[in-house]
Amino acid sequence: MRFSTLIAVLLVFSVSAWAASVPPPEVPFNSEVPVKKVKVDPINFVRLGTFSVTFEKTTLSDVYGQIGTGAIEHQGDASESIYWLCYSARQAPIPYRLWIVASGEMGGAQHSVTEISAQVLSADAATSDGCPELPIKFQQASLNGTIWLGAADQALQKQFGKPSWAVNEWRRYFFERSIIVTSTVYSRGGSELPPGDWSVSSWLDAKIGKGKIISLFAGVITSN
Question: Are 64 and 12 in contact (CB under 8 A)?
Answer without folding.
Answer: yes
